[in-house]
Specification:
Elements (H helix, E strand, L loop, with lengths): L1 E5 L6 H13 L7 E5 L5 H7 L4 E5 L16 H6 L4 E4 L2 H5 L5 H13 L3 E6 L3 H5 L3 H15 L6 E5 L13 H18 L2 H6 L1 E4 L8 H5 L6 E4 L9
Parallel strand pairs: 1-2, 1-8, 2-3, 3-4, 4-5, 5-6, 6-7
Helix pairs in contact: 5-7, 7-8
């Protein structure tokens, strides 16, 4: 099981120190991989405060190692300061910053080549779901990754229905499982049975302490990518 906390553009030294203290003292299940997606400016600070059993992820990275890309950070920089993961393709990167499927896939390819593990995000908007296009959209996004990713060992896919992120609307466990099962089949048909069986698919979208247990029982849900709730001690 793999649980990521995506802090997004939240936190300061004081609040991050408190969260890290809570995590350091928590009885975390040793069978659960825990990863914290921290704002870039605080990554090194969080890494130094967290136990080594908790992974640290950049929330984004660019597709090349260095160069004239003002404001960007590279996977090699993330590795240099102790991060071992990066979140790519989050719906906010797609919708607000207009990142294309192709760019996101190129970023994933480069991050993996640099030795980072990747949380590869996919998901449909409310309009797309209401138009019955959920499977079509997530398949298109997966196809872009599949053109660039040769080895899926260090990839976790995060399915996040955009209509359920930060809206308080959560896909029912059945709705989430339905898409996860579709993705599992897509992987079997388009990549391999081995990758389909081994790849972890996280669910993200208004996951809270209250609904996590029920969602976790579904056979094809292998973890969570949690937004706002990951800033709260009870989560």
């Amino acid at each position: 099981f793999c649980v990521g906390g995506n802090w997004k553009m939240n936190g300061d030294q004081k609040s991050i120190a408190e969260i890290c203290k809570t995590l350091s003292g928590a009885a975390l299940d040793p069978n659960t991989e825990v990863v914290i997606g921290c704002p870039a400016i605080y990554l090194m600070y969080a890494r130094n405060l967290l136990p080594c059993t908790v992974g640290v992820a950049g929330q984004n990275a660019y597709k090349v190692a260095k160069g004239a890309f003002t404001g960007e950070i590279s996977p090699s920089m993330l590795k240099d300061i102790g991060a071992d993961w990066v979140i790519l393709g989050h719906s906010e990167r797609r919708a607000i910053f207009n990142e294309s499927d192709e760019l996101i896939a190129e970023k994933a390819e480069h991050a993996l080549a640099e030795g980072l593990k990747v949380i590869a995000c996919i998901g449909e908007t409310l309009d797309e779901r209401e138009a019955g296009k959920t499977n079509e959209v997530v398949a298109r996004q997966m196809c872009a990754y599949a053109k660039k990713v040769r080895d899926w060992t260090n990839v976790v896919v995060a399915y996040e229905p955009v209509w359920a992120i930060g809206t308080g609307k959560t896909a029912t466990p059945e709705q989430a499982q339905e898409v996860h099962a579709f993705l599992r089949q897509w992987l079997t048909d388009n990549i391999s049975k081995e990758v389909s069986a081994a790849l972890r698919i996280q669910y993200g979208g208004s996951v809270t302490a209250a609904n996590a247990k029920e969602l976790a029982k579904k056979p094809d849900i292998d973890g969570f990518l949690v937004g706002g709730a990951s800033l709260k001690p009870e989560f």
